[in-house]
Each structure stands twice: as C-alpha cells, then as structure tokens.
TrEMBL record:
Its cofactor is Fe(2+). This is Putative alpha-ketoglutarate-dependent sulfonate dioxygenase. The keyword Iron applies. The lineage of its organism: Eukaryota, Fungi, Dikarya, Ascomycota, Pezizomycotina. The keyword Disulfide bond does not apply. Belongs to the TfdA dioxygenase family. GO terms for molecular function: 2-oxoglutarate-dependent dioxygenase activity; metal ion binding. GO terms for cellular component: cytoplasm. Keywords: Dioxygenase, Iron, Metal-binding, Oxidoreductase. Residues 360-380 are annotated as: Disordered. It comes from the Eukaryota.
Length: 380
C-alpha cells in the first residue's frame, strides 16, 4: 500500500545520496538538488512541475500540427569545424562509426559558430559527449533553442519554471510503472524520440547530474550504418517507402471515448536524408514504427522486423557509453536510436534533464549517398 500524504516515504539505504525535499514527494538526489538550487530553480512547490496533460487525441495533435521552416545549424557550419575542435583539449572518437567525446570545453560557453560546428559534428558522428559540465537547466534550454524549436512535452514532467527541460528520473517514472529485471520498460528498449511529431526530434541533449556507480550505460546505434548494412538491392525495396509512426503516450477519441486509448500517428519515410551531411539513414525503431504504408501488415512486419534486427544486432554500428556525474550527451534522433540499460535496477539514484530540439519534416532524396559512399568506403 502506498504511504498516505501524512506518512513519510520510505528512504533508500543509500540515504547519503539524498535530501528530503517534501515529505509528500520523492527524495531528490543531493547532486541534482544542488545543481537546481544553484540555478535559481524554485523547489518550494515541489519537484518536478507537471504539465496539464491533454485528455483527447485531437487536442494532443493540435499542439504542433503546422508545417514550419527549419534551418539546420549544422548545414551552415564550417566543414573543418576548426572553431570547435581547435578549442578542445582532446577529441576522442569512441568507435569508427559512431560516438565522439570532446574534452576541455564547456557547453554553456560555446560561441554561435562553435554551436553550429557542434551540430555538424553530431550529424556526422551521431552522438557527442562532454564530461564535467557546469550547465544549468536554463543554459541547457538556450543551447537547444540554437538548434531549433525546443519541444515542450504535454505529458512529461519538467523543471519548475523551465518548460522544455524535461526530467529523466527513473525513480519518478517507477511511481507510474514499476520496472523489473524482466521488464525494465520505459527507455530500456531501442527507440527514437518523438517520431510521432510532424517535425520529429533533431538534437537531444541529456545532462545527467546523478548516475549509478555501476551500470546505467546508454547505447546508441547508427542509422547511417544500419542502412549500409543492407544490400544495394534491398535498399531499392525500401527507398521511397513510408511508414506510420506512433506516440509513446495515448489519448482518448473525443467522439468515441469508449473506444479506448489511441496513439498520435504520423507518416514519414523509412529512409531519410540528413540536411547537414546529405547522407541516407534508416529511420525506423521497434518501439514506435507501426506499419509500412501500402503493405499488408504481415508483409510490413517481415520487412520491419528485419530492419529492426539489422539496426539492433550489429555491434560495430553501436556505441555504449558509461556515464559519470555532470556529463552531457547530445545525439541526433534523425540518424540514431538509443537504449538505456537498467542493469543497476534502481539500486542507486539517477537523475538528469533533457532538452530536445525539433528538426525538419523528414524527406527522402534518391540521389543522396550513404555515409560510407561519401567517405570513400566500400559500401557494396
């Protein structure tokens, strides 16, 4: 039985990592609280702040249902990226195909030119990491606004007073759906963020101020690499095809509330082109790609399940990252999917803040090269 509002919540054995915020809320990890208070975040009314969740499907769809222009900041960057890379103490490529760590730079201090070059680096390397970051939620949002329109989620809790900076706090999520070793759920499956949007997610920036001492890694897989794993003849089968993409959250049909919960659905190409690199990428994920348009479900399932398998099973197009406190990861949802390992099983606190910048409406160009073709690598 859940404790009442007058009863104290149970405290974990690692109490030294926590401070009690209010007796009717979860204990907030100490590092998270220190960061939020130093940023001037008002925690007096509880944490986090929750949006007014729309109940009906048409209300949720109407939140962002207009075509809008998007200028990709990476597309206007200096291809050498000398302003960004020249200022770094070290640039570490974590694998050949995906993942780069930048040492010696603070994200909050980047110039506009360096931000543009960072967007291009993310477009080329899929995910870029910065450790030992001193960044407030407000500064995190400002950086996201440089990359595009910051998504304000109608369902997910956010930092008080800073809508658009959502909370990644597994202990909070467990209040709504308890995770287990067999069924960790949530972000612990391969997925891509916000594919149901008319203009889906571009760059996402997750800053983790609190992480487990062991475990809790995040994995990313390259859509560029997944596409190149397909034979040239198979690529011809899926090039130009579209699929239905669904939201993670569900809503009621206003005209038929008894019909049960429904997802937002959008139609996008299953192979898309990144505007900054011009490279083709496979744009599907097992969690939220529903069906290829024009195919019977059985036919679609055969193709999609094969594409998921290619994306998920080839370790040479993946990177696994071990977090340390105060680390930021910035990845491009247009060309990746990711998976958060829950192997620490909630035994230690984890907390972070996330900002996602929306990008262009997905498009396909049959004349675009693959990443390997553009780099002069074998692609047959």
């Amino acid at each position: 039985m859940a404790p009442s509002a007058t009863e104290p919540l149970p405290i974990a054995s690692h109490i030294k990592d926590y401070v009690i915020q209010k007796k009717d809320t979860l204990p907030l990890p100490l590092a998270a609280r220190n960061r939020l208070e130093a940023a001037g975040i008002d925690l007096s009314n509880g944490y986090p702040e929750r949006p007014a969740k729309p109940l009906f499907l048409d209300d949720a769809i109407s939140i962002r249902n207009e075509d809008r222009p998007h200028i990709d900041t990476g597309a206007r960057a200096d291809k050498s990226k000398s302003a960004l890379l020249g200022a770094a103490k070290e640039v570490i490529h974590l694998t050949k195909n995906i993942g780069t760590e930048i040492v010696g730079l603070q994200l909050k201090d980047l110039t506009d030119q360096q931000k543009d070059e960072l967007a291009l680096l993310i477009a080329e390397r899929s995910v870029v990491f910065f450790r030992d970051q001193d960044i407030t939620p407000q500064q995190q949002k400002a950086l996201g606004e440089h990359f595009g329109e910051v998504e304000i989620h109608p369902q997910v809790p956010h930092v008080p007073g800073v809508p658009g900076v959502t909370i990644i706090w597994p202990a909070l999520m467990a209040q709504e759906r308890k995770a287990s070793f067999r069924q960790p759920g949530g972000a612990s499956r391969w997925h891509t963020d916000l594919v149901h949007e008319k203009h889906p997610a571009g760059i996402t920036h997750l800053h983790n101020d609190t992480v487990p001492s062991i475990g809790g890694d995040t994995l990313w897989a390259s859509g560029y690499g997944a596409y190149s794993k397909l034979s040239p003849d198979f690529r011809k089968i899926i090039d130009g095809k579209y699929a239905i993409y669904t939201s993670a959250h569900t809503y009621l049909d206003r005209n038929n509330p008894n019909a049960g919960p429904k997802h937002i659905e959008r139609i996008h190409p299953i192979v898309r082109v990144h505007p900054a690199t011009g490279w083709k990428s496979l744009f599907v994920n097992r969690a939220m790609t529903k069906q290829i348009v024009g195919l019977d479900k059985a036919e679609s399932d055969v193709i999609l399940n094969y594409l998921y398998h290619v994306y998920e099973s080839n370790v040479d197009i993946q990177v696994r990252f071990k977090w340390t406190p105060r680390t930021s990861a910035l990845w491009d949802n247009r060309i990746t999917m990711h998976n958060a390992s829950w192997d620490y099983e909630g035994s230690e606190p984890r907390h972070g803040t996330r900002v996602t910048s929306l990008a262009e409406k997905p498009y396909f160009d049959p004349d675009a090269p693959t990443r390997r073709q553009a780099l002069g690598l074998d692609d047959d």
